[in-house]
Design goal:
By secondary structure, the protein is α+β, with helices and mostly antiparallel strands. It has eleven helices and 18 strands. The protein has three domains: about 120 residues, Rossmann fold; about 140 residues, D-amino Acid Aminotransferase, Chain A, domain 1; about 60 residues, Dna Ligase, domain 1. The strands form three sheets. Strands 6-5-4-3-2-1-7-8 form an eight-stranded mixed sheet.
Amino acid sequence: MEKSGKKRETCRRNTFAVIFGGIGKEHSVSLESGANFIKKARALGYEILPICVKEEGDFRLMRDGREVDAYPVRLFGKSGFLIGGELIPVRSAAIIMHGDFGEDGVIQGALMAAGIDFIGSDTVSGAVSSDKYFTKCIADSVGVPTLKTLPVYGEDEVRKIENEIGYPVFIKPMRLGSSVGAAFAYTKGELERALGEAFALSDRVIAQPCLTDKRELEVAYYSSEKRTVITPPAEVDIGGGFYSFSEKYSDKSRAALNLRAEVSREVISKLTEYTAKLAKALGVRHFARFDYFLTAEGEIYFNEVNTIPGMTEKSMYLGMLEGAGVSFGDLLAELFGDPL
């Protein structure tokens, strides 16, 4: 019995938690990213404790087709997940949750309070990076160009938007990702509708001018104790349209995803410089994706950062890293450590 107990304890110390799902608007995408991350990690020999945060907020362990409560805690000087009345320690955790109540520092804070080590950006970096207005203010402060961004605090600010931005205008919630609640407006009526939809999801909204002739570029950022990698840009080609939630995740999407954008060395150099500055200023660590616009005139504008980039089969982040010499196995080994 003693021998068996020792072996079981060793397994626990070498178990890694993956937390996915969440109560936010991107729950379904987080489920897909989490499932793909877990599948890849297990294929490499990692012992994974899969923790799904349900839409109602419960933390549940998914095991053998059953669900049991599993909450991050610190009890009697020990940290881990409380499962069935037993504290199960883990070596580290990965939060694979997108958008509000996941990418914005909330879950990171819960793990920090419980004393559980995790990979990815911390509470402050997650909170600031998830706010599109805050990130643009920080980008501006370190010399990274952004489009004019107007904070909007109520549906009655139509006149202010018309005077300071004009038409066409792009409206989106400040702290939601995956283009949730975002819309173009070409008329006053469309603007009023866009504001109504955005404020139904968020109490803070931003307005930006529309770029009618632009390219959408994505840069993958990766850092470990061993190295820091900033990849050449990938490109999302939507034919000049809007890369909406449905275009991002629908099987019928028209978007063409190119892992290596055809751009000049000068553009690559600028994107690398901007990404390094932003990662440092925002306190981003381990993994993130930085999104930019490139105009026909060659102007570059920072758009937003995702501190937990998509990990689905369709997501470009892991493919971009692979092309830059960082395999998924490398990522796990450098951030998690070796499996059993």
